[in-house]
Amino acid sequence: MLLIRCPYCEEERPELEFRNAGEAHIARSTNIAGDSDDDFEKFFFIRSNPKGIIYERWRHIHGCARFFNAVRDTVTDKFVMTYKAGEPKPAKLPKTSNEVVAK
């Protein structure tokens, strides 16, 4: 079972306590009513699905119930780090498994 560190509770908990909430750091349109159908579709349904590092939103459903961001490797399914919602993407990621931390 995966352990995910909640940056608010400051502890690792089993993955069953969390829910994925999609890709992180997606900017919403300032005029969604004026967007074309294609732009609306891209915003709500089209997401990148890279092999490797991805930035995701997660929610600690059975804990603090707060949203946070996570950096996860889609190849190994390991969480590289987690950080609070609203914080920018980390400028530098840990390089080795010994450096895997939460902010």
Written description of the protein model:
With 103 residues, the protein is mostly beta strands. Helices cover 9% and strands 33% of the residues. The protein is built from one helix and six strands; from the N terminus they run E-E-E-H-E-E-E. The radius of gyration is 15 Å and the shape is globular.
Which tags fit this structure?
103 residues; mainly beta; 1 helix
What topology emerges from the helices and strands here?
Layout: E1 3-6, E2 11-14, E3 19-23, H1 37-45, E4 53-59, E5 67-73, E6 78-84
Succession of helices and strands: EEEHEEE
The portion of residues assigned to helices is under 10%
Q: Mind telling me the C-alpha Rg? A: 15 Å
List how many beta strands DSSP finds.
6
| Number of alpha- plus pi-helical segments | 1
Brief summary of the model shown:
This protein has 103 residues and is mainly β. Helices cover 9% and strands 33% of the residues. The chain has one helix at 37-45; strands at 3-6, 11-14, 19-23, 53-59, 67-73, 78-84.
